[in-house]
Amino acid sequence: GPHGPYTTVHDHVWAIKNDSTIESSQDTTSPLWVTYSNIGTNVRAMNGIFAFNNMVVVGKEDGLWAYADVAAGISVNDFINITPEFDRHPSTSHFTRGLAFMGWLYMNTRRGMVRYNGSELQDVSGVVTGAQLADFGGRIRAFSLDSSWLYILMDTPSSDASATKTTWLLTLDESGGFHIHTTHKLSIGDIYDAYTFYNGTNTHLYIA
User: Fold this and answer.
1) Are 107 and 150 in contact (CB under 8 A)?
2) Secondary structure string (H, E, C) spanning the chain
3) In sequence order, which residues have a C-beta less than 8 Å from that of residue 162 and are 6 or more positions away?
4) pLDDT digit string (tens) for 159-184?
5) Which is nearest to 49 in space by CA: 108, 96, 119?
């Protein structure tokens, strides 16, 4: 069976098995898995797998691989690399985190951020990095969201890898354009994921 990460599309659980193969369950309760191979080369690591607009989107170190209609079935040639430019700049830090927000799938790259709407890929690294943001390293550790905001947890540019390294919590909204807000400075350097929960009164952000 697969080792994860996992996502769910069309009542199927999809997961990474190795660097060129993903697997899909028969349905959300079935113990049986179907293998789909040849998603790029096994020389390049498979970093993430995401659900977006009923699509399975696979992030590898050499690019983003997308398939548009899972319900119609999958053959070995259905996943294509929509970002060939990453083939010249591969990294195991590309596309390790991703989350759908306001019609776009936001994902990290090694030192920035891109978004994909099913037909167009945009580099939006300038939203979270720039000359006036010297304390922001560009390395996104986690995404979360609520109905209005995309929450971004981002490293500082220091080479410090300790558990108390500074991480910035940024919030982004798209009302009339990109608006980025520096919300909190955290002494948590080993963040893996984040989750937002609304309890009827307040929004809480949980960090793992």
Assistant:
1) no
2) CCCCCEEEECCEEEEEEECCEEEEECCCCCCCEEEECCCCCCCCCEEEEEEECCEEEEEECCEEEEECCHHHCCCCCCCEECCHHHHHCCCCCCCCCEEEECCEEEEEECCEEEEECCCCEEECHHHCCCCCCCCCCCCEEEEEECCCCEEEEEECCCCCCCCCCCEEEEEEECCCCCEEEEEEEECCCCCCCEEEEECCCCEEEEEC
3) 189
4) 666 777 788 888 888 876 777 787 78
5) 96
Q: Which residues contact 26 (CB under 8 A, 6 or more apart)?
A: 12, 32, 33, 34
Long-range CB contacts for residues 178-184, cutoff 8 Å, separation at least 24: 178/124, 178/127, 180/127, 180/128, 183/151
pLDDT tens track for 112-168: 899 999 888 899 888 776 554 556 666 888 999 998 899 999 887 666 667 777 888
Tell me the pTM: 0.84
Closest to 50 (Cα-Cα) out of 42, 37, 60: 60
